[in-house]
């Protein structure tokens, strides 16, 4: 018998959801290789995350134990509750879907340069996106606004501002946030994904995969046609050379 499966943590679920939002359904290997998610999902295989996504989809659709409705991507104002803030922080959406249940940010972001810090950084990314989505400011949210909200609702580490600046910069560089006039807003692609139901997100991801597969097939056909044309050209050249030799055995022309 194999080793028993470990129960999925909220951090792993959040990483999987963000990975699907970034790459689409079916890109399990790509998600596992992405440095942004690799640290959190290091104990999971392609089959593990594929099965987990199917279960999350079923639960979000009302076929599982959780409440039916939107997934954790929905851009709504989060309701935050504290459970012994010195030890734990739990964030819950108004629709009852839990998105974070972890140690305090102060503990999570200690030794941020260590290898294991990828998990903590991923959690901060999630919180930043949820805050911006929840505030729903038309022109985006400033770093000051984001910082104030997080510090008000969570236990922040001493170097929180430095971490926030670094994470905001990374989110802009990977295209998940757009920065304009010192305001941060969620990219249209990610905002669309966050506003989708589980069924809509799955359909969009399926369409994207189908389009990518069609493009790959077309490229392969074009490559085969090019190889065929090259072979025909070489054959024609050989025939021409043979004909010249037959016409003038003493002179070989190329």
UniProtKB/TrEMBL annotation:
It is found in: Chromosome; Nucleus, Nucleolus. Pfam families: Linker_histone (PF00538), Myb_DNA-binding (PF00249). GO terms for biological process: green leaf volatile biosynthetic process; nucleosome assembly. Keywords: Chromosome, Coiled coil, DNA-binding, Nucleus, Transcription, Transcription regulation. Coiled coil: none annotated. The keyword DNA-binding applies. One of its GO terms (cellular component) is nucleolus. Its main location: nucleus. This is MYB transcription factor. InterPro entries: Histone_H1/H5_H15, Homeodomain-like_sf, Myb_dom, SANT/Myb, SMH1-6, WH-like_DNA-bd_sf, WH_DNA-bd_sf. GO terms for molecular function: double-stranded telomeric DNA binding; transcription cis-regulatory region binding.
